[in-house]
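User: I'll paste a sequence; please echo it back and then give the predicted structure.

Assistant: Echoing your sequence first, then the prediction.
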Amino acid sequence: MNRENITLSLDDNRRLTGKNLLSDQPGAIIDAFVSGIDKLIVVNIWSIYANRLLKAVNWPNEKLYSRIFEDGITIAISAPLDALYAACDLNELAWQLTCEELTNTANKEEISAAITRLKTTIAEEVNPKLLELIEQSKANNIVYLVDDDEFSLGYGTTAQCWPISALPEPSSLNWSQYKSIPLAYVTGTNGKSTSVRIMSQIIEQSGKCCGVTSTDFIRVGNNIIDHGDYSGPGGARMLLRHPDTETAILEVARGGILRRGLPIDNVDAALITNIAEDHLGQYGINTVAALAKAKAVVAKGLMNNGQSSGTLVLNADDEYLVALAPELPVNKCWFSLHENNTTLQQHKQKGGAVCFVRDQQLIYANHDEESIIIAVNDIPMTLNGAALHNIQNALGAIGLAKCFNIENKAIKAALSIFASNSEDNPGRGNQFKIHQAQVIMDFAHNVHSMEAMAVTTANIKAQRKFLMLSHAGDRTDTEIINMTKTALKMQPDFIIAAEVAPYLRGRELGEVPQLIVDTALAHGMKKCNIFTFDSPFLGTKYVVEQLAKDDLALLMVLSERDKITELLLDKSSNTSV
């Protein structure tokens, strides 16, 4: 073994606070790049050091987990929930010792001194009173939440919080007063936020106050608590501790799952909308199949003491989910645009729950009983059936709603009023009527979502079609070219390439718009029909000025969304649908 050619580079070291890709336990995890040596050798040496350190700090019952990926390894240890920062230090020390052995480098620190340091760190961090409360919560089957600052029991109206520094005595608590509420996870590559918002509308129609977390905001009923990405554990805790939350729909994104694990251990249902290439190359997830497994961690939220205790709603039109499903030992509900979908039909024949389209009607079936929920054309967001992705989003939401035993009447009422406008679903297929032309604004930022919008607008008849594109600079040239090619399936007459200066991320001004222009030219567009602008807002202003009766404009907006929405609402004189 040539030690000079070995690369051992720590990429990330972090806490895991919930069920995760590698285990169901809290702990510490490291992602590292490895080359020039068999990765299994590295894992094995790390295992020796990790076990040695765990025994030295009196954690002999903790477990080791590992995953080998294309250009590196993921190595993790389980650890007590009250000592996760110390667990990160221990894991990093095991990694450091591994690197020193494999590169024949002298130890930076005597192992005995390092162990003494770890023991001190653990002693400063541990909180026996917290662990006792958690054990009592589990013994009483009571839901709890914990973070660096607070511990709480119960969800929604029964939630009660205490500072970590002032925890109550378990014997002083009236355990029976703390209750759970109906809960669901929503994940997938595209359609997560739309599905969460549809579910909020459905639950509201059923007479309950729905709380939602998403990548855009955290909301309880009609009140937005805060704007921002709340798709991680922090958002879930804030929502579940809010006294008005009666049902919770939690959007969980890939990043949050891989960084911290699931926000809470158990939910009643989960929805995976679809799996497509996006954000690959982070946390050791380099393939779409690996991404599918990461998102499918939500299925662990449906397992309680090794038993399936909820339902997983899955897209039967998604090849990755169909391939992965046999590995997920939970109850399932499948949905598809096609009644004759093989996976759906096999599940239906076994009496399983399914949701599908038949003769332009959305149908839910379970145990051989079928119900017509609503007609496609009665759902505004489907654009009379042109927006196939929103038909899928409606099907997934129906499946999820039926997991909560919500009546068909409430589901139909919600779907019939949920619109693709800037109020119901900001940034997702928002429609405006300007100069008797139709304008659609969307946040599409990967090939899968771009395809959905391109197909939708290709299916809409128009006198002329305008397409505005902008892409973030951290996308590769290939990704930018592929997204542009996909968007061109709209068959636009004019294309507008807009710079997104806040998202250059290392590129030169004009570089991304030029890639859009070159791709459009290579696919047959005339140079005189291609325009570039310094921002999406300026591009939008130009498009609006050009619009005439029966034109169609598709605006892909990554930045300045609020400003552009305000402009479009003003120009449409509040006639958006």
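The chain has a mean pLDDT of 92. Residues 266 and 305 are 10 Å apart (CA to CA).
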